[in-house]
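Ticket #4471: structure output looks truncated?

Reporter: J.K.
Steps to reproduce: submitted the chain below (116 residues) through the standard prediction queue, then opened the result file.
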Amino acid sequence: MEYQGIDLTTGARVFHFGPVKGTNNIGEFLAIVHALALCWQKGWHDKTIYSDSYNAILWVSKGKCKTTLERTPQTEQLFQIIARAENWLRTHQYRNPIIKWETQKWGEVPADFGRK
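Returned output as attached by the reporter:
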């Protein structure tokens, strides 16, 4: 699993994480929280964040990554990152819109790695 954030205006990569052992939905969840934290830090409180994962958008809205990934020594570091992301969501009142990327209308989301 790996994720990245792409600025839709410029096409530039703004952040990247991975690869690590994990799931696509975890990557989408962490990417959204990463984008929210970056927007918070930069004062971009109205910047729209897109994801093509309904699950990840729901998890962010509920503040909890509901993965079924097994917690093992190999995934422990990822679970610590998830806990940090969940804590960030609990402690910040973001207002950025999080919108479902409409793949049928707009094509593949630019942040995907072209592997679908």
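Triage note (M.O.): checked the attachment and the full token line is present. The chain has one domain: 3-106.
Status: closed, working as intended.
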